[in-house]
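Database export, one record per block. Field names are fixed; values are copied verbatim from the stored entry.
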Amino acid sequence: MITMCIRYTLDIYKLADFETYARNWPEPIRRCGGDLLGYFLPTKLAGPTNIALALINFPDLAAYEKYREALLRDTGAAANVAAVDASQAILIEDRSFLRRVPE
């Protein structure tokens, strides 16, 4: 199992636009083969207020590659990306893969 971590740097004045974007992802992600653990928005309690995360599980790298191909053809995914691009809520988007430490 691998987990893709997407770290977003956001325009703090457009957090509502990003939240809409995040709420629109669960179905396209599932439809394309990902297992969404969740989107995590910043708070004012501690830490940066312009950083959000998304965590998505895949059985292996091959499954992730199939997911990416399917996502590129998914009309719901394309519409969601177009909307957030138009809003310019996301300033930077970084992806990395993580592996869980066995218990």
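Remark 1: The chain has a mean pLDDT of 95.
Remark 2: Helices lie at 15-23, 26-32, 61-73, 75-87.
End of record.
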